[in-house]
C-alpha cells in the first residue's frame, strides 16, 4: 500500500488493527467500524484512534465517536464507486476535523475530486502506485486548478474569482 | 462588461448565446490538457483500458462497433454560426465529412481516431465548445427547449438556468462517479418541448402566486429497458435554492442509488423501489441539513449569465408579412414549407424555422459538412447568426424575419434542407442502430428510411398531420420509442431482427409510455404495419384530432383489434 499526502508518497504512521488484535498501549491504530465501540470504551490513554468505514455507513451513527477520532478512513471498493465522496462531505459537515483518508483503488485522476470533497490523504494499492507515480498525482491535482462549485474544498473556485473580479 | 460589449469585439457572434469569460475558457482548456495527458498515459500504460474508460467517456469518446465515436456537447442546443462552421471543419479534417445530431442535442462524429481527439477537443475549445460529460456516469450535458427565448408560450428562457447547471455540474468533485449517467432537462414554456418528464431530473420554470419565478422539479423519469414517467418531487423550488436542492437530490442518489446492477442503477429505479415519498423525505432532510448559504445560488452570477440571453435587436415589424403572404400563394411548395416547418415567434413579424434533417429516404439527424456550412450562412444572413439543435434531431433557425422566409427557403432547398415534414410522419427520431452502435440488436436507420420512403408523398403526410415516429435499435431506447405516438423497438429474436410496435407514447407534460400493439414483426413488415395504423387513424379521427388524441379517445384495444383482424385477412401482420 502507498499513501499519498500533499502530492507525495509518504510513510504511514497509522497501523491497521485486525479485529482480534488487542488494543496497543501507544501509537496510532485504525480499527474497523465493528470494533469502534469496543475500542472507544477500552482505549488506553495516549493511543490515537482511527476507524475504517464502509462507504455505506450512516454518518449520524458516528456522532458520539467523532470528537475522539483522529482519523477516518473511507473505503473505495472500486474507483468508479463514488459513494465515498458524498460520505466524506457528510462527515466533514458533521464537524470532523481530523485526517480524512480515502482507501482503495482510487486513481490519480480522482485526486482533485477526493481533495475537493474533504479528504486529506489517499491510500492506494501498490499496483496503482507502481503505474501512477507521484508526478502523475501532482499533475492530476494541478489539472483541476479551477472549479465551478462552491462549498467544496477547492482553492480555485471560479465563482469566487468572478466575485472578486467584479468587486474590483 | 455587458453582453453587448463583447459582441462588438466579435462581429459575427450572435447576442443570445452564452459567451465564455476568461475563467470558462481556462476551465475548458484545462480539461483538454487533462485529457491529452490521460490519452498519453493510457498509451504509455499508466492507465489500463478499464481505468481510462470513464475518463474518455467524460470527454465524449466512445468505443463503438467499428471505430471510436466522439460526442460533442451543444449545451441546451444553442449554437452560433461560427461554432457550426467549426463542426463542419472538424467533420472534414478528422471524420468523413458529416456529423450526426442526436436526441440529446449533441453532435456525434463516427470515425475519429483516438490520437486525434485531443486536437479535436482543442479545435472545439477555440470556439467555446467541448465534449465534457457527454457520456459517463456523471451529470450529462443539460438539454432545454429548442424554442427557448422565442416561443410565444414561454414563462422564462430556460437557457440561463441550463447554463447555470452546465457550470455547476462540470467536473463536479462529488458527482463525477455516480451509479449511472444522469440527465437533466429544462423547459420554460407552457408546452414542454424538452421532454422533461423522461429525464432523471426535469425542471419546469413556473411562476408562483407571489409572482416569483421558480422551478417545478420532477425526478426519476427515463426510458431504457424500464421506462418511467418522472414524479413530481417539489412543486416549487425558489431560484435561490435550485442548486442546493439539486445537490440534495444528487447526494441522495449517489448514496442510495443501486450499484449492483447497471440496469437498476438509475434514479428512476430508486424512485420506483423506495417510492417518491421516501425519496422526497430523504431529499428534504438533506436539503434541510445543508449549509445552503455556502454554496447556494449566486443571484449576481445568474444575472450575469442571463444577460447573454437577452433578445437580439429585432426590428419593429407588423405582425404579419405581406411579402410572405404573396410568396406563399405564388409558390405552393414554399407555402407547404411555411405551413409545416415554420412556427409562431414571440416578436411580431418574426418566425421560428425548423430545418428538417429527415429528407425522404435519408438518415435522420445526419448533416454533411456542406450542409452545416449552408446552415451557418443561413443563420447569419437571416437569423442573427444563431442556430439550435432540437431533440427531434433537427436544426432550428430561431429568429427569421417573415419577410426573409422565401429567400431562406430557396437557399435551404438548393442544399437539400427544405423537406417540409417537421412533426409529420417522416420526421422520424432514430438512433444509429446496428449500423454504428455496439449495443444495438437491430437496425434502425434502414427502418426509418423505409417508412420515410413509404410516406414520401408530402401532401399525404400533411393530411395525416402531426405524428411522431420514434425508432430504437435496442432496449436502451436512445431513439425514445417509448414516447413516440408510434414507437418502434428493434430486437433480435433467434438470429432474426424483430420489431415491436407501441402506440400512445407522449414526451410532453402529459407524458405517457406507449403500449405494445402485439407480437414483433419483421423489418420488411414494419412499413405495412405503420400504414395500417395510419389508415385506421384516418378512418376513425374526428375533425381536427391528432393521432394521439384519437388513440386516447377510442383506446388502444381498437387499434390492436383492427390490426389483428387485418393480419388474419392475410395482410401478413
From TrEMBL, chain A:
Highest taxon of the lineage: Bacteria
InterPro entries named among the record's database cross-references: UCP030820 (IPR008318)
Name of the protein this chain belongs to: Oxidoreductase
TrEMBL record, chain B:
Boundaries of every Nitrite/sulphite reductase 4Fe-4S domain copy: 135-287, 426-564
Keyword Zinc: no
GO MF term set: 4 iron, 4 sulfur cluster binding; heme binding; metal ion binding; oxidoreductase activity
Pfam family, one: NIR_SIR
Domain (Nitrite/Sulfite reductase ferredoxin-like) ranges: 68-127, 363-414
Annotated InterPro entries: NIR_SIR_4Fe-4S, NiRdtase/SiRdtase_haem-b_fer, Nit/Sulf_reduc_fer-like_dom_sf, NO2/SO3_Rdtase_4Fe4S_dom, NO2/SO3_Rdtase_4Fe4S_sf
Alphabetical UniProt keywords: 4Fe-4S, Heme, Iron, Iron-sulfur, Metal-binding, Oxidoreductase
Official protein name in the record: Sulfite reductase
Amino acid at each position: 500500500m502507498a499513501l499519498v499526502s500533499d502530492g507525495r508518497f509518504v510513510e504511514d504512521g497509522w497501523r491497521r488493527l485486525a479485529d482480534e488484535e488487542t488494543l496497543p498501549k501507544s501509537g496510532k491504530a485504525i480499527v474497523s467500524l465493528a470494533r469502534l465501540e469496543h475500542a472507544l470504551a477500552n482505549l488506553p490513554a495516549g493511543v490515537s484512534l482511527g476507524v475504517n468505514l464502509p462507504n455505506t455507513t450512516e454518518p449520524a451513527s458516528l456522532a458520539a465517536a467523532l470528537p475522539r477520532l483522529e482519523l477516518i478512513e473511507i473505503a473505495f471498493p472500486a474507483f468508479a464507486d463514488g459513494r465515498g465522496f458524498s460520505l466524506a462531505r457528510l462527515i466533514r459537515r458533521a464537524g470532523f476535523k481530523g485526517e480524512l483518508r480515502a482507501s482503495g483503488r482510487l486513481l490519480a485522476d480522482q485526486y482533485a475530486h477526493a481533495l475537493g470533497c474533504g479528504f486529506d490523504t489517499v491510500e492506494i494499492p501498490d499496483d496503482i502506485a507502481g503505474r501512477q507515480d507521484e508526478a502523475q498525482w501532482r499533475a492530476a491535482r494541478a489539472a483541476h486548478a479551477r472549479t465551478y462549485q462552491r462549498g467544496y474544498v477547492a482553492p480555485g473556485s471560479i465563482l469566487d474569482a468572478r466575485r472578486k473580479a467584479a468587486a474590483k | 462588461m455587458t453582453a453587448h460589449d463583447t459582441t462588438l469585439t466579435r462581429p459575427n457572434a450572435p447576442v443570445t448565446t452564452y459567451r465564455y469569460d476568461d475563467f470558462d475558457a481556462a476551465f475548458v482548456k484545462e480539461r483538454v490538457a487533462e485529457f491529452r495527458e490521460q490519452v498519453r498515459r493510457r498509451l504509455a500504460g499508466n492507465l489500463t483500458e478499464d481505468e481510462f474508460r470513464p475518463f474518455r467517456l467524460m470527454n465524449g469518446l466512445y468505443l463503438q462497433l467499428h471505430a471510436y465515436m466522439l460526442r460533442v456537447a451543444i449545451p441546451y442546443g444553442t449554437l452560433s454560426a461560427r461554432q457550426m462552421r467549426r463542426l463542419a471543419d472538424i467533420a472534414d479534417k478528422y471524420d468523413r465529412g458529416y456529423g450526426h445530431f442526436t436526441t440529446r442535442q449533441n453532435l456525434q462524429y463516427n470515425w475519429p481516431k483516438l490520437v486525434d481527439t485531443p486536437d479535436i477537443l482543442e479545435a472545439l475549445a477555440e470556439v467555446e465548445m467541448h465534449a465534457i460529460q457527454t457520456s459517463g456516469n456523471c451529470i450529462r450535458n443539460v438539454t432545454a427547449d429548442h424554442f427557448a427565448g422565442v416561443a410565444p408560450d414561454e414563462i422564462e428562457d430556460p437557457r440561463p438556468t441550463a447554463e447555470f447547471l452546465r457550470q455547476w455540474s462540470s467536473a463536479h468533485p462529488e458527482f463525477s462517479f455516480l451509479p449511472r449517467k444522469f440527465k437533466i432537462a429544462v423547459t420554460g414554456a407552457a408546452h414542454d418541448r424538452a421532454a422533461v418528464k423522461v429525464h432523471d431530473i426535469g425542471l419546469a420554470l413556473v411562476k408562483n402566486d407571489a409572482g416569483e419565478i421558480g422551478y417545478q422539479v420532477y425526478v426519476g423519469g427515463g426510458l431504457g429497458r424500464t421506462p418511467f414517467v418522472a414524479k413530481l418531487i417539489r412543486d416549487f423550488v425558489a431560484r435561490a435554492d435550485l442548486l442546493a436542492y439539486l445537490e440534495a437530490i444528487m447526494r441522495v442518489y449517489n448514496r442510495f442509488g443501486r450499484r449492483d446492477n447497471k440496469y437498476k442503477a438509475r434514479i428512476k429505479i430508486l424512485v420506483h423501489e423506495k417510492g417518491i415519498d421516501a425519496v422526497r423525505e430523504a431529499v428534504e432532510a438533506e436539503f434541510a441539513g445543508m449549509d445552503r448559504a455556502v454554496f447556494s445560488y449566486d443571484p449576481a452570477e445568474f444575472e450575469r449569465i442571463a444577460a447573454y440571453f437577452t433578445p437580439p435587436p429585432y426590428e419593429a415589424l407588423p405582425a404579419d408579412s405581406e411579402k410572405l403572404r404573396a410568396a406563399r400563394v405564388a409558390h405552393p411548395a414554399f407555402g407547404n414549407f411555411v405551413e409545416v416547418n415554420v412556427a409562431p415567434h414571440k416578436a411580431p413579424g418574426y418566425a421560428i424555422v425548423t430545418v428538417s434533417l429527415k429528407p425522404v429516404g435519408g438518415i435522420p439527424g445526419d448533416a454533411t459538412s456542406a450542409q452545416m456550412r449552408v446552415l451557418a450562412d443561413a443563420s447569419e444572413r437571416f437569423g442573427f447568426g444563431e442556430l439550435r439543435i432540437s431533440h427531434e434531431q433537427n436544426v432550428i433557425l430561431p429568429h427569421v424575419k417573415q419577410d426573409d422566409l422565401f429567400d431562406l427557403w430557396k437557399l435551404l432547398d438548393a442544399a437539400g434542407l427544405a423537406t417540409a415534414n417537421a412533426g409529420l410522419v417522416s420526421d422520424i427520431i432514430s438512433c444509429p442502430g446496428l449500423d454504428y452502435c455496439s449495443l444495438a440488436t437491430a437496425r434502425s436507420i434502414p427502418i426509418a428510411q423505409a417508412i420515410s420512403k413509404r410516406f414520401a408523398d408530402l401532401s399525404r403526410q400533411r393530411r395525416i398531420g402531426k405524428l411522431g415516429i420514434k425508432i430504437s435499435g435496442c432496449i436502451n431506447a436512445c431513439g425514445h420509442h417509448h414516447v413516440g405516438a408510434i414507437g418502434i423497438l428493434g430486437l433480435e429474436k433467434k438470429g432474426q431482427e424483430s420489431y415491436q410496435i407501441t402506440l400512445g407514447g407522449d414526451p410532453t407534460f402529459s407524458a405517457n409510455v406507449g403500449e405494445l400493439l402485439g407480437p414483433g414483426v419483421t423489418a420488411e413488415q414494419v412499413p405495412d404495419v405503420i400504414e395500417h395504423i395510419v389508415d385506421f387513424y384516418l378512418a376513425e379521427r374526428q375533425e381536427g384530432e391528432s393521432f394521439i388524441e384519437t388513440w386516447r379517445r377510442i383506446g388502444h384495444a381498437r387499434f390492436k383489434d383492427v390490426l389483428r383482424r387485418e393480419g388474419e385477412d392475410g395482410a401478413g401482420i
